[in-house]
Amino acid sequence: MLQSKSLSLLVALLSVLSIETQGQVAPQTIALSSRVAPRGSSLKRRALSPSTVPLADFFLGTDLQWFGNISVGTPPQLVTVVFDTGSSSLEFASTLCGQACAAQVQFDSTKSSSFVDTGRTSSITFSTGVGVDPVIGANYKLTLRSGQDTVSVGGLKATNVNLFLITNQTPKFDIDPFSGIQGMSCMGATAQGFFAALISQGLPSLFSMYLTPKAVGKAELTIGGTDSTKFTGTPIFASLPAGSGNTWRLSSPKLSVNGKTTSLLSTQRTIIFDSGTSNILFPTTTTEAIYALISPDIKANPNEPGTYGIACNRISSLPAVIDITFTSQAGKPFNLTIPSSELSVGPFANDPSTCQTLINAFDGLSLVGGSVLKHYYSIWDVGAQRLGFAPAVGV
Ligand SMILES: *[C@@H]1O[C@H](CO)[C@@H](O)[C@H](O)[C@H]1NC(C)=O
Ligand SMILES: *[C@@H]1O[C@H](CO)[C@@H](O)[C@H](O)[C@H]1NC(C)=O
C-alpha cells in the first residue's frame, strides 16, 4: 500500500513533468511557514534573503514524502504541499473539489481578493505499469482549473503566480496528508512561477533540501541559499548534462552493489533526482542486475508488475549497499550511497510475509528519490545548473 502511494505520486509527478515539457504549464515554486536562515552562513545576500521552511514527513512505515506550508491568496490561506523537484507546476485542493477532496484542506478562491480565474481546465491522469497498488484505468486522476494568485513562503512573496486548483480527484488521493504539489523543477528566472518571481526580485537562484528520516526529523527546505548548520564539510557539485531542460538529472558512469559491479552496471546512464517520491526506478535489466548482486532470492512479484520482493524474515540481514557514482565538477568520482537499511520498503499488502525491495523496474527511466536524498544535504543550484551534496547532520 505504501509503495503504491509513493509510486502513484511519482507517476503523478512525471505526468506533470511531461505536461510541462509540452509547454502548457507555467513554473512555480516553494511554500511554507518560514524562518530565515542563520546569519553568518555563507549566503550571498542580494535583494532578498534566503528563507528556511520546516518540512513534515509523510511516513507510512517508510519515509514517503516531505511537505510544508505555503500561503496563497489575500488574506493568506494555508496550503500544504510536497516540494517536488520532479515537476514544475503548483496545484492544490480547492473548495471547487468539494466532497472529492474532503480529506484535504481546501483553498477557497472566493475568499481571496487577489485570485484571478484564468479559466483553463485540464486533467492529469496517472498511469504506469508498476506499483504495489496497481494503477487501473484512471484511478489516479486530478482535474484542474487554472488561476493566478499571490503565493508566499515565510516572508518571501510573489504575486500573480500561475497555479491550478484541483476541482476533482479520484479517491486514491484521500490518504495524502497534504493538499498539493509545488513543482521545484530546474526553472530559471525567465519562467513564470513563484521561485522564478523571487529570482527576478533578487533571490539567489538555488534552494537546498534537508530531507531527513522520520527518526531524525527537522527536515527543511531553504529557498535562495543553504543552511550551513545542516551539513558538514564542503558540498561536492556535479553539473547537469547539457540539454537537461527543466529536469534535475546527473550522468552516472557506474552502479555498484556491496562494492561489486558488472559490465551492464558500469554503463553510463542519466539519473533523474525527484524529491517527490521515495522510490528508485531503473530499467528492468539494470534492476535485476542490482538484485542479482544482493540475493538470488529477490524475485519479481507477478501480482504487481515492476516490483520485487523477498521473505521479510530475510531482508534485514542482507547486505545491500548501493553506490551510485557521479563525476564532480572537478572531474573526480564521488558516490551517493544507499545503505542496506533502505532495501525493505515494507510488506506487500497482498502477501504480508514478503517484503518489497527498494528498486522498481521501469523501462526507459532511471530515477532516485527520497531514499537517496535523505542521506545527504542536497543543493539544487538552478543558476549554475548543478546539484550539490554534502553529509547531512544527524543522518
Ligand atoms: C503548518 O502550519 C500549521 C499552522 O500554523 C502548523 O501547525 C504546522 O506545524 C505547519 N507545518 C509545518 C510542516 O511546518
Ligand atoms: C564508490 O563506490 C565504489 C564501489 O563501492 C568504490 O569502489 C569506490 O572507491 C567509491 N568511490 C569513492 C570516490 O568513494
Automatic annotation (TrEMBL):
Keyword Cell membrane set for record: no
Protein name stated in the entry: Aspartic peptidase domain-containing protein
Residue ranges of domain Peptidase A1 in the record: 66-390
Keyword match Hydrolase: yes
Family, similarity comment: Belongs to the peptidase A1 family.
Record-linked Pfam families: Asp
Signal peptide location: 1-23
Swiss-Prot/TrEMBL keywords: Aspartyl protease, Disulfide bond, Hydrolase, Protease, Signal
Cystines in this chain: 312-355
Residues of the active site: 84, 274
GO molecular function per UniProt: aspartic-type endopeptidase activity
Native source species: Crucibulum laeve
Any one biological process term the GO annotation gives: proteolysis
